[in-house]
Amino acid sequence: MKGNKITELLNIKYPIIQGGMAWIADASLAVGVSEAGGLGIITGVGPTEVVREQIRKAKSMTDKPFGVNVMLMQENAGEIAKLVCEENVPVVTTGAGSPAQYIEMWKEHGIKIIPVVASVAIAKRMEKFGADAVIAEGMESGGHIGQTTTMSLVPQVVDAVDIPVIAAGGIGDGRGIAAAFMLGAIGVQMGTRFLVSNECTVHPKYKEKVLKAKDIETEVTGTSTSHPVRVLRNKLTRQYLKIERNNPDSEELEELTRGALRKAVVDGDTDNGSVMAGQIAGLVNKEQSCKEIIEELVAEFDKCMNR
C-alpha cells in the first residue's frame, strides 16, 4: 500500500482513517491508530472540556497526526469547532450537517477538512465550500446512515468531484480496501474493525457482541424519522421496530433511545443499549492491537493487488 494524495495531505503512512465513533473514539484509540500509521480520530461528542482533555491526552502520547470528528447537529458543535483551532488539531472530519460556517475559520488555522457525505450532491457542495477531501459513506456503516450503498456511492462521488475521495461503510479487511480503490477511492475510513482493538476502551460486553455478530445481525432503526441508524439486533431494536411499524409518530421512540448509546458503550448494557456497528461486523472475529490490525490490512491489500 503505497503513499498517495491522502497520505501526503494528512502526513500519514497508510491511507486508513479510523471512524470518529461517538462515545467510543477517545485518545487511546486515536493514538493507537496514528502510531500504527493511520489517522486516529477523537470523537467531538460530549462536553467541550472533556473533548479538550482527550485532545491534550493524545498529544502527550504521540507526535503523529490525529483528528477530531465534529458532529454538527450537537448543541456544542460551535464550541468544538473553535476548540480544534485552539488546540491546533491538524485534521477535522464532520458529520450530521454542513460545516460551511466553520470552514473559513478552520482554513485560517491550517486544518484539513474532510466531511462525511452520503450523496453526490453533498460531496459537490463540500468541494465548493473548500473541503480538502470527502468521505463517501455507504449505508453499510454503523450508526447514522444514508440510503446508498458504498459500491454505488463511491464511484459516483469520484466522478463528480476533483478532490480525493475516501470510502467508508462495509470495509473490514484488505479485500474491502482493494475494492474501494478499484472504485476510485484513494483511502478508507473504518470504524467497526477498530471498535474491537485492544486500545478501544468501549465496554467489553460491547466488543463481545460485535465479535459474535453474524452477517445478518444488524438492523436499521429510525427509518420513519428520516434519521436511520444501523445497530446490532437486541431487545432495544425489537421494541423500537415494533413501535415504529405500528405508530411511527410515537413519543416512545425518542424515550427508548435517549442515552441508549452511552448505556451500551459505558455500562455494557447490550440488551437495552444502542450497539452501533456496521454490516461488516460478521467479518470481525478477533481482538487485536491497532498495529496488528493495520499490518494485517496492508498485507491483505497488497496480496489482492498482486493477484
Q: Identify the strand order in the major beta sheet.
A: 1-9-8-6-5-4-3-2
Estimated radius of gyration:
18 Å
Which blocks of ≥5 consecutive residues have pLDDT under 50? none
What proportion of the residues form beta strands (DSSP E)?
Answer: 5-15%
Pairing-aware structural class of the strands and helices?
A: alpha/beta
CATH architecture of the largest domain: Alpha-Beta Barrel
Give a structural overview:
This protein is of the alpha/beta class. It has two domains: 5-199 and 289-306, TIM Barrel (Alpha-Beta Barrel), CATH 3.20.20.70; 204-279, no CATH class. Helices cover 43% and strands 15% of the residues. It is built from 14 helices and eleven strands. The chain has helices at residues 5-10, 27-35, 48-61, 77-86, 100-108, 120-129, 150-160, 174-182, 192-195, 204-211, 235-246, 252-257, 260-265, 290-306, and strands at 16-18, 40-43, 66-71, 91-95, 112-117, 134-137, 143-144, 165-168, 187-190, 218-221, 229-232. The model has no long low-confidence stretch (mean pLDDT 94).
What's the SSE blueprint?
Elements: H1 5-10, E1 16-18, H2 27-35, E2 40-43, H3 48-61, E3 66-71, H4 77-86, E4 91-95, H5 100-108, E5 112-117, H6 120-129, E6 134-137, E7 143-144, H7 150-160, E8 165-168, H8 174-182, E9 187-190, H9 192-195, H10 204-211, E10 218-221, E11 229-232, H11 235-246, H12 252-257, H13 260-265, H14 290-306
Parallel strand pairs: 1-9, 2-3, 3-4, 4-5, 5-6, 6-8, 8-9
Antiparallel strand pairs: 7-11, 10-11
